[in-house]
Amino acid sequence: MSDAARVDPALDTGRGRGPVDVSASPSAARQPLDLDEVRLEPGFWRRRQEVNAAVNLPAGWEQLEAAGTLANFRIAAGRADGRFVGPPFHDTDLYKWLEAAGWQLAAGSQPELERRVAAAVELIAAAQGEDGYVDTFVQVAAPDRRWLDLDWGHEHYCAGHLIQAAVAVHRATGSRELLDVATRFADLLFRECGPGQPRRLDGHPEVEAALVELYRLTGEASHLELAAHFLDSRGRGWLGAGTHGGPAYFQDHVSVRDARTMDGHAVRQLYLLAGVVDVAMETGEGALLEAAIRQWDDMVRRRVYLTGGVGSQHAGESFGEGWELPNGAAYCETCAAIASIMLSWRLLLATGESRYADQMERTLLNGFLSGVSLEGGRYFYVNPLLSLGEDAVLGRTRAERFPWHDCACCPPNVMRVLASLGHYLVTRDETGLQLQQYAPMRVRTSVGGQAVALQMSTGYPWDGEVEVVVEQSGGAPWDLALRVPGWCVEPELTVGGAPVEAAREGGYAVVRRAWQPGDRVRLVLPMPARLTEAHPRVDAARGSVAIERGPLVYCLEQPDQTEGTSVLDAELDVRGPLEAVWRADLLDGVVQVEADGTAPAAAEDGEPLYAPLGTWRARPRVPIRLRAIPYYAWANRGPAAMRVWIPRSD
Ligand SMILES: [Zn+2]
Question: Which listed residue (193, 332, 335, 409) is catalytic?
Answer without folding.
Answer: 409
